[in-house]
Amino acid sequence: MKEVFFRDWQSLGIVALTAIIAFITLFLFVRISGKRTLAKLNAFDFVVSIALGSTLSDMMLATVPVVEGAVVLFLIILMQYTFAWLARSSATMEKIINTEPHVVFYDNHFLEKTMLREGITQEEIYAAIRSSGTDQIDDVKAVIMELNGTMTVVKKSTVAGPSSMDDLKIPL
Q1: What is the pLDDT of residue 35?
Q2: What 3-state DSSP class applies to 40?
Q3: How many other C-beta atoms are found inside a 10 Å radius of the C-beta of residue 140?
Q4: Alpha-carbon Rg for the chain in angstroms
Q5: Strand order in the sheet with 102-106
Q6: With helix as H, strand as E and coil as C, how does 91-158 read?
Q7: Which of 44, 64, 73, 112 lies 20 to 30 Å (CA to CA) from residue 126?
Q8: What is the rounded distance in angstroms from the CA atom of residue 25 to the CA atom of residue 28?
Q9: In angstroms, rounded to a whole number, what is the distance separating the alpha carbons of residues 167 and 148?
Q10: Dihedral (C-alpha) 107, 112, 116, 120: value to the nearest 10 degrees?
């Protein structure tokens, strides 16, 4: 019969030691890999986080040897860098790897088709507007669903010139 609560002291010691080593290894790799690993998650970063967590769990529970787990952690972070480089180097790869931001509210109009595609409601847009510190809808130029799933509220400007929204396709 398999032990459910306790196997033996040696197994407990191995799991404790591998958990410490795995945690330190992941911490060092994430520290070396930089802020992108810690940024708000887009779809690709989410996959990377799940893969890192799963590998760390296997290492901590000693279901894979620490060195093999460290190689997997290294490869996951290397793939993250490779995909990020590909996205920067090629517009086609950028579209494959990352989504595009979408305008969900523009000039006092909810863009229903985009809202449906993004799976968000008017209430969520109102909440984003309130979170931005804006209480007057008339002060809002647009609400944008960003790459990482957050919503950005762009207030109307009285100054003419380039806009942070110039790269967006606004379906009206």
Answers
A1: 57
A2: coil
A3: 20
A4: 22
A5: 109-110, 102-106, 140-145, 151-155
A6: HHHHHHHCCCCEEEEECCEECHHHHHHHCCCHHHHHHHHHHCCCCCHHHEEEEEECCCCCEEEEECCC
A7: 44
A8: 5
A9: 17
A10: 40
What is the distance between the alpha carbons of residues 11 and 93, in angstroms, rounded to a whole number? 46
DSSP character at residue 164: T
Residue 155 makes CB contacts below 8 A (sequence gap 6+) with 132, 134, 139, 140, 141
Tokens of 99: 């989504």
| Residue listed under structure tokens 């398999």 | 2
Quote the CA–CA distance of 68 and 55 in Å, as a whole number. Answer: 10
* pLDDT at residue number 171: 67
CA distance 50 to 57: 10
For residues 121 and 170, what is the distance between their CA atoms, to the nearest angstrom? 18
**Mean pLDDT per segment of 10 residues, for the chain of length 172 residues?**
74 84 80 61 76 88 86 88 88 81 93 92 95 93 87 86 73 63
